Input
Amino acid sequence: MNYPVWQLDAFGGGLLIAMMAVFHVYISHFAVGGGLFLVLTELKGIRENNRAIRDYAIKHTRFFLLVTMVAGGITGVGIWFTIALLNPAATSVLIHNFVFAWAAEWVFFTIEIIALLIYYYTYRRMEQRHHLMIGWIYFGAAWMSLFIINGIIDFMLTPGAWVSTHNFWDGFFNPTFWPALFFRTALCIIIAGLFGFMTATWIKDKPLRDSMVSYCA
Output
C-alpha cells in the first residue's frame, strides 16, 4: 500500500514527535508512580491515625486525576496522530504485530480510569480497607500498562530476534525490555517522590509539613 507523505521543512518529524512524546512520557510515568504515592500516603495516614495526612493525599487526587487522565489522554492520542502522519508504514507494523498487546493495554487503561474515578469520588464514603484496595487496583493496572507499552516501545529500538522470526514474543521480550522496565519503574517512583516533595512544602501546618517532606524525601 502506498501511504501519503507529510513533508515538514522547518521542523523535522522527529522533533514533532519528541515534543509530544516527552511531555506524554513524564505524565504517563507520573500516572504510575503517583498512584503508588497516593495509596502509600493514605496508608501512612491510616496507620498513624492521622486525618490530615489522608486529607493531603485525597486533596492531590483531583489534580492527579486531571493531569493523568486529561493531559495524559490528549497527548497519548496526539502521539498516535503524529506518528500516523509522519510514518504510517511503521505505525502499521506496530499495530499489526502487537494487536493483542494493544488490546490488553487498553483494557488495563480502562481499569485505571474506572479505579481512579472510584478512588476519588468514594473518599469518606467507603471503608478504608476497600478504598485502599481500589488504590492498589489502580496502581496495578497502571504498572501493567507500563509493562506492555515498554515491550512495544523497546521493540522499536531493539527488535532483536524478531527481525528473523517475526514472532510476537521475540519482539515483545526484546534485548532491552528488562533493563528499560527497571529504569521506567524507578523513574515513576522518582517523579512521584518529587511531586510529593514539592506539594508537601506548601502545607501550612509546620509539623505536618516537616513530616511529609521527610516522608517524600
User: Anything to note?
Assistant: The chain has one domain: 13-216. The mean pLDDT is 89. The two ends are 54 Å apart (CA to CA).
